[in-house]
Write a structure and sequence with these properties.
The chain has 62 residues and is an all-alpha fold. It has one domain. The chain is built from 2 helices and no strands.
């Protein structure tokens, strides 16, 4: 259990500025490829869903 709200920030094609990265507790890269914001959100949500499904002992079909 994390005591604070978790925020996900999707950057532009050049990434995020140092003012945002310096404040981050953790930085995650979805891929070395460039995605549209819509696709990045879908990929991130799918990974969160997959992780929570596995953590909760459910079967995750690939």
């Amino acid at each position: 259990n994390y005591p604070y709200p978790i925020s996900f920030v999707v950057g532009g094609f050049l990434g995020l500025g140092s003012e945002i990265l310096d404040r981050a507790d953790f930085v995650l890269s979805l891929s070395s490829m460039t995605f549209s914001h819509e696709l990045a959100r879908i990929v991130l949500l799918e990974q969160i869903y997959r992780s929570l499904t596995i953590i909760n002992g459910k079967n995750y079909a690939k």
